[in-house]
Design goal:
Length: 146
């Protein structure tokens, strides 16, 4: 189901994603669309054109690495990561902790949250496609970010 550029742009403006993966894809596609229609952009956007191009490359690289990792891992691996982090929290941080330990504790909590998000996403989409795939397959994009 291919949509024309204006419809994709409208979709990206109206739709937000609560997931990290969805956020990267939406940011990438939105920025790519803006760069294709540079004449319609603000003076500030045009003034930062080089930075925006670098950001597009950075988003592509981030997604590529995330996609490689995502496609390798299973839901059971993610569940085990959560169990391991929760066990570490229980073993190390059941008592009072200092500020340095607090950083590690919060890191473990964020890892648990991220793994839960990946499980949620994996249940909807087993394999992530290349980022540009979602520009022409908006039905798959919507499935991923809903």
């Amino acid at each position: 189901m291919a949509l024309d550029a204006d419809k994709i742009y409208d979709l990206l403006l109206k739709k937000e994603s609560d997931t990290y993966i969805g956020g990267i894809i939406l940011d990438y596609l939105s920025l790519k669309q803006k760069l294709k229609n540079i004449d319609k952009q603000s003076w500030y956007f045009k003034n930062g054109l080089q930075a925006n191009r670098k950001k597009l490359i950075s988003l592509r690289k981030s997604y590529k690495k995330l996609r490689e990792d995502y496609n390798k891992v299973t839901i059971n691996d993610l569940k085990q990561n959560i169990v391991d982090a929760e066990k570490l929290i229980k073993d190390r941080y059941s008592k009072r902790i200092n500020s340095i330990e607090m950083y590690h504790y919060r890191y473990l909590l964020s890892e648990i949250s991220f793994n839960e998000e990946l499980i949620y996403t994996k249940k909807k989409v087993e394999i992530l496609q290349p980022i540009d795939y979602y520009e022409t397959h908006t039905d798959e994009l919507i499935k991923l970010i809903d």
